[in-house]
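Section 5.1 Outputs to date
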Amino acid sequence: MGNTELLCLFSRSRLWINLFSGRSVVWLARLLWEQEAESSNLSVPTIFLFFLMPSSSNLCKYDLRVVKNFGLVQHPEGGWFKRTYSSRKLVNLKYGNRLCGTSIYYYLCKGETSSLHSLKSDETWYYHFGSSVVLHLFSKGVYDSVVLGRNWEGGEVPQYTVMEGTVFGAELTSNRGTLMSCSVCPGFYQDDFHWANQADLLIEFPDYKEIIYRLTKDADT
């Protein structure tokens, strides 16, 4: 499906789209974009910027400049993103064919978090600029955290790989937005994404309930 066809689709169904709000619109846009991205190896189609670009009332001036400069749109888990790479090769897995790899820009604005979720693939996070970012990791009964940033003398790291199956989320350490990149291998596929179950996490990790509540408040439980 090309951009012209998508424009026609959105024009004919504008009324229906207006009935959706928040995550519903984002998920609809992402599902349509995934179809085009897999076939065209393009980043986010221009049509989605028409619906999902932020208004100046929602973001501070700095965050708005970053989002517009990099052409980012809202991400379902929180924050903003743009697909920058999709492999043209496929790998055959027991649960289906996947792209060998995909990459995105990922930006957290002031006050935003990445809600807890898990993937069937490994995901590497790369820090670019802005506030340091804490990755909260829950896996096989063990909690861990990693801080992405440029203060390597203070223990921060410029990149970190989250292993498949790990429940994880992210939050800023200060009131400054942060630009990162995320690379998924094998490539991202919607069916491989799962929201964390808040109730299950609270039972398994009662000592970390504040983090769990903070990073699952907008996620389906």
